[in-house]
Every structure is written in C-alpha cells, then in structure tokens.
Amino acid sequence: MLSEASKDPFRTRDHVAEFDDVVDAFGESSRQTRQKLRSETDVPYGDGPAEKLDIFYPPPAARQGRAGLPVHIFIHGGYWRMFSKDDFSYIADTVTAAGAIAVILDYALMPTQRMALLIDQVRRATAWVAREIGSRGGDPFSTSVSGHSAGAHLASWLVDQRDAHPDYRVATCLLLGGLYDLRPLQRSFLQPDLALTDEEVDRWTPLTVTHRADCIYSIHVGEYETTPFHDQAARFHQSLLNDGCTSALGTVPATNHMTSALSLGNPASDVGKSLMSTIHKSQANCRPSK
C-alpha cells in the first residue's frame, strides 16, 4: 500500500476513498434532475460530435415574473479526458433555484483531441449562448460561468484578456478545484495519457496570462484536496488580484476534490450558496461601466 507521501497528488482516486460512490452519485443525481426540470438536451453549438449542450429552465415560481433570466454556464471536469455533460446535469438544481437558466456544456476529450480544440469549443459554445439564449428567455448580458477541476481551467479561458472574445462577456465566474498551472501535470500519472507538450503547457496555463477585470471571480478549493490544488488556487487568486480583478478565495469545508463538486448541485451547501451568489452578482455586473 502506498504511503501518503508517495501518492501522486493529482491521482484523485488515491486520495478519495469514496471516489466510485461519488461518481455514481453524479450519475443518479443528474438522472433525477433531467426528470424533474424542463430542458432541451443535446442542442448543437457546432458540427463536431461532442459539440452539444443541455439547457435547463427554472420552474415558473422561480422566474418571479422576470422576462430576461440570468444565464449560467457550467463546464465539467475529468482531467480533460473523462466524463460528459450528462454526468453533471445536477448542477442545474442550484442554478435554477437561483432563478437562472442552466447551460451544461460538452466538449471533445483528450488525448484524441488536443487542448486548443477544447478551449475553442467552450468559447464557441459560450458565443452560441450569447446569440441564442435571448430567444429562450435568457439575458445574455447576465451570463455567469463555473467549472470544476479541468472545467475550471477551461472556464478561465472564457475570461482571459489575451484572446478576449468579441461575441460574449462573462460577468461573474466561479472556479472550483481548478488547475491553473499545467507544468506539474507533465510529471504526474496523467502525462502518459494526456501527452501534454511544452508548447501546450506554455500556451494554456492560466497563470501566464492576464484576465478580464470586468468579471467578478470566486475561487474555491475543497478543504481536503491535495496540496497542489490549494497552492494553485491561492496563486491564481493572487494573479487575479495582480491583474486588478475582484476575486475572493474560499475553502469548501469538509469536502475533497469529488465531494466538493457534488455539493455544487446542492443550493443549501456552502459552495452551492456561493454559486447562487455568483449568479445573482452577474445581474448587478451585467454591463461594463462606461
């Protein structure tokens, strides 16, 4: 049996005894969400087989008579190589409880595809939402985004300053258990699978670029996550502050890398409340000051 010190800090299964049970809970919770919420599923945002998204609508009581509802986009994790949108429908429970429309994205997986395509896909999906969500009752100006793990990494590329996209603007952003420095992954168990090149690491490490100061950020990490996740969250938070951004750094109590993601779908949990706050703040920060 491996000692704690000899375990790869990025191999989540080694650090989360209930890993398989939580994955099962992702699936079961998502199945229940799809049964109870009105939705459109497998809506194409591009031509690729993975370029689809699901849209979940709040019940009439949560709309409170509003015409243009806030919109929240969630990007799933899985180290860019596993899971799909279908495993994370349950995030819509918290989003719709906040009176917002939930959009859960899918994207192609590595190593069959490369990081550049994945980032291009989440950008094109967000641009699709900006164009199309108004006809579905959403307010494209009140757009927030969240992501977990690799999804947090991908979400950060919706708010970078280097390649600022002209077709959308994200008002608020919640990133949970994210990966903001790709270099250590080249020395992890993931490298034989992902085959990250030095060029990919240099180009797609969020810590190496500036981020939009007109977005409000909320950076979270589970209390029981391994040291690199805490370190990267703190460094990314500081990087945002250095960029002149508004950013808050928080720890999700009594959670690990997997259970923190499960808690995101519970509006009563600490991180669920933070997600609801992120959505509400998107309405106040929906249009840039002149």
TrEMBL record:
Annotated Gene3D superfamilies: alpha/beta hydrolase
GO molecular function: hydrolase activity
Signal peptide: none
Hydrolase found in the keyword field: yes
Cited SUPFAM superfamilies: alpha/beta-Hydrolases
Keywords carried by this UniProt record: Hydrolase
Keyword Repeat attributed: no
Ranges where the Alpha/beta hydrolase fold-3 domain occurs: 73-209
Region (Disordered): 27-46
Name of the protein in its database record: Alpha/beta hydrolase
Lineage: Bacteria, Pseudomonadati, Pseudomonadota, Alphaproteobacteria, Rhodospirillales
